[in-house]
Amino acid sequence: MNASTELLVDAFDRIREEVEATVTGLTPEEIGARVGPRANPIGWLVWHLTRVQDDHVAELTGRAQVWTKDRWAERFALPFPPEATGFGHSSEDVAALGTPDADLLVGYHQAVHERTVSYLNRVKVGDLAEVVDDRWNPPVTLGVRLVSVVAEDLQHVGQAAYVRGLLRADDS
User: Fold this and answer.
1) Which of helix, strand or coil describes residue 24?
2) Which long-range contacts (CB under 8 A, 24 or more apart) does 68-71 make?
3) Of 4, 25, 39, 159, which sits most exposed with the smallest number of CB within 10 A?
């Protein structure tokens, strides 16, 4: 592993740690709570950030998503097509996630994290400059795509942690 991929692994490790710290110990009601009529609950935020990571890493590796390959889609039993990641979800779609169990959310995230780290362990520093998506101007490189996933995940895990803080304001 090189210094660049070590930094990426560290970033994804921090995301995993924050997902676990945010979700562990919550009740299903807290996981599904919406602090405003159209606010995203913790469960949806963690599911979405994990789906995005799973989707993007699977595309980069050319392998099936953990979501379908390891039957997480069946365990969650959501009313969405298996390829859904949460992008473009309406408030009603967000509500359809319901109140998933903390262990289910953390387990899926852990499985995706393991796939991500396994992939990063094979990435060479020169690979990060490889164009992986030429639909954009400028074209997106592997490094940019991975940093985009980190940014998306950090944003959403931070939102989820904030909601936890609102729900458990009396905890010290």
Assistant:
1) coil
2) 70/111
3) 25
Do 45 and 159 form a contact (C-beta atoms < 8 A)? yes
Burial class of residue 146 in the structure, from the number of CB atoms within 10 Å of its CB (0-12 exposed, 13-18 middle, 19+ buried): buried
Euclidean distance between CA atoms 82 and 103, whole angstroms: 20
* Joined tokens for residue 80: 């969405």
User: With contact defined as beta carbons under 8 Å apart, do 59 and 83 qualify?
Assistant: no
Fold (CATH) for 3-167: Four Helix Bundle (Hemerythrin (Met), subunit A) (1.20.120)
Amino acid at 118: S
Q: Is the pLDDT of residue 120 over 90?
A: yes
Q: What values do phi and psi take at 58, rounded to 5?
A: -60, -40
User: What are the pLDDT digits (tens) for 42-74?
Assistant: 999 999 999 999 999 999 999 999 999 999 999
